[in-house]
Design a protein that fits this description.
Helix content: under 10%
Structural class: mainly beta
Largest sheet: 7 strands, mixed
Mean pLDDT: 91
Number of helices: 1
Oligomer: single chain
């Protein structure tokens, strides 16, 4: 069993920055043994949940929502079992609930499988 815990959300003015953190509970041996792909998703009011950024299946590369490239950066600290999302130059349209995601490669885009954090609210004021 895997538990994801997000932190770092909050209220920020347009143009500001936030860094989200997600700690993956359990030993690195246990997590790596499940071959989990890690990433971030978000859901704005009235919108479908969408991919923000994730690592590739082999963990060596990254994928981003095209409109966020250059502003958002995903990173990881294996020693802390933590992934991060650095968000710069935030805009009001970035407002939403941000979720940490972990799932086996073949289940990643099926929201009913794998693991989700509880979400952290990001609100960007105009």
């Amino acid at each position: 069993q895997v538990q994801l815990v997000e932190s770092g959300g909050g209220l920020v003015q347009s143009g500001g920055s936030l860094r989200l953190s997600c700690t993956i509970d359990g030993s690195t041996t246990t997590i790596s043994g499940q071959n989990l792909v890690l990433g971030w998703h978000r859901q704005a009011p009235g919108k479908q949940r969408e991919l923000v950024a994730r690592f590739t299946a082999n963990g060596l590369g990254t994928n981003y929502l095209d409109s966020l490239k250059g502003r958002f950066t995903i990173s990881k600290d294996a020693g802390k079992n933590t992934i991060y999302l650095q968000m710069n130059n935030l805009r009001p349209e970035d407002t939403g609930v941000y979720f940490c995601r972990a799932a086996p490669m073949y289940q990643y885009y099926n929201p009913d499988f794998g693991y989700w954090g509880r979400g952290t609210q990001v609100t960007v004021s105009a």
